[in-house]
């Protein structure tokens, strides 16, 4: 163990590293460079006038961007995995004050998925509904990042 990092190194970090895949590491690195909260939404395709939604049509967590070589569903799964590792917080139905979530709701990816469902089910009036949320690297995650540098 590097003695200069003994205040931030914890034995549990070894287990986290063993469980992480390449996407987890790349996504965590990108998120941990952000000093605060990161906007996220929880999108779904809904049928107008009902309480019904299409399950698995959209990723559970959506940031509006991906990591090269990975799609939005893989990024969502990685976020959930890292929250289970304890290094990331997924705060459902929380928002960043004065953040503009509207651009996140209107990305090409979401529009393409919606258009595909509209073409497959032309008899239904479909729309994208979202819940504004927040993702952030918690204190444990920040120490983990510092220890891995």
DSSP strand count: 4
Mean pLDDT across all amino acids: 91
**SSE pattern, N- to C-terminal:** HHEEHEHHEH
- Gross morphology is elongated
- Residue share in helix: 40-55%
Count, helices: 6
Give the low-confidence spans.
Answer: none
What percentage of amino acids are in beta strands?
15-25%
Report the C-alpha radius of gyration, rounded. Answer: 18 Å
Describe the structure in your own words.
The chain has 149 residues and is an alpha+beta fold. It has 6 helices and 4 strands. The chain has a 4-stranded antiparallel β-sheet, with helices on both faces. The chain is elongated and about 65 Å long. The two termini are 13 Å apart. The model has no long low-confidence stretch (mean pLDDT 91).
Structure at a glance:
The protein is an alpha+beta fold.
SSE diagram, text form:
Elements: H1 12-19, H2 22-32, E1 38-47, E2 53-54, H3 72-85, E3 88-91, H4 102-105, H5 108-120, E4 126-137, H6 139-148
Antiparallel strand pairs: 1-2, 1-4, 3-4
Helix pairs in contact: 2-3
Provide the descriptors you would attach to this structure in a database record:
149 residues, elongated, 40% helix, 19% strand, single chain, alpha+beta, 4-stranded antiparallel sheet
């Amino acid at each position: 163990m590097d003695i200069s990092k003994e205040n931030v190194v914890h034995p549990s970090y070894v287990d986290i590293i063993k469980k992480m895949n390449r996407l987890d590491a790349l996504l965590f690195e990108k998120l941990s460079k952000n000093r605060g909260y990161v906007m996220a939404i929880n999108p779904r395709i809904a049928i107008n006038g009902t309480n019904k939604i299409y399950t698995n049509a959209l990723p559970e967590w959506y940031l509006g961007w991906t990591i090269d070589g990975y799609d939005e569903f893989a990024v969502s799964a990685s976020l959930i995995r890292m929250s289970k590792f304890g290094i990331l917080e997924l705060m459902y139905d929380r928002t960043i004050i004065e953040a503009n979530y509207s651009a996140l709701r209107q990305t090409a990816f979401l529009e393409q998925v919606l258009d595909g469902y509209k073409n497959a089910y032309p008899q239904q009036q479909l729309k994208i509904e979202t819940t504004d949320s927040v993702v952030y690297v918690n204190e444990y995650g920040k120490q983990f990042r510092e220890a891995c540098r």
